[in-house]
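Changelog-adjacent note: as of this version, every example in the card shows the full chain rather than a window. The one below runs 230 residues end to end.
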Amino acid sequence: MKWERVWRAVVPVMAVLLSGCTTYVSTQVTAFSNWNGSDATRTYAFARTSVQQNSIEQATYEQFVANELDAYAFRQVPSADARYLVGLTYSIHTGTVTVTQPVFYGNPWPGPFWRPIGPWGPFGPFPPDYVTQSYPVFTHTLGIRITERASGREVYNVTARNTDEESSLVWAMPYLVRSALADFPLGNGTVRTVRVRYDKRGGQMTNEVPVAPPPAAAPAGVSGASATPN
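Full-length structure tokens:
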């Protein structure tokens, strides 16, 4: 009988935790901008730290970013020919969410007399039990920093962060990239929430539906993200 009480509490808790991921993935975006580049000068190359050199993971994330930058008239070229350098930082951190739920289990008699009848028993109301459950959650973070190659001046710095029960950073990365670069370039000091449609393929997502369609390429009205200012 104890496990039945616990299960009746756990099911609604898990439904709350998972409900935000069934349709959209919500990401918090913060941008700092001193952008004044034109379409004609949007040539770039990726800049890597010593740790990121020869990293397959880094190359995978760079491809996600390159796909999205294409939609904004950026053109990837050799580093020596690039006006801009694009650097990436990313991380995943584990936390815990604790939820307490009331459990109405009916009349208090044990054995065959017990039955789950809700908050109102046959002889009046019974107070609920409370069950506390803790669940792991994961915060995924992506930073994209654009600098002028010749001067080293930072012209754009955006951070995207979301938290859910998904433990894979590569699964979350397409959502982070699309959210970070949605409506590029954002104004300086912009803080907003971007929602990207959930894709059951997760990390296999290919960004085939751009947030902002390339000029004269994507059909009108196609959009994969929506933003809500905070």
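Structural remarks: The chain has one domain: 2-14+24-229.
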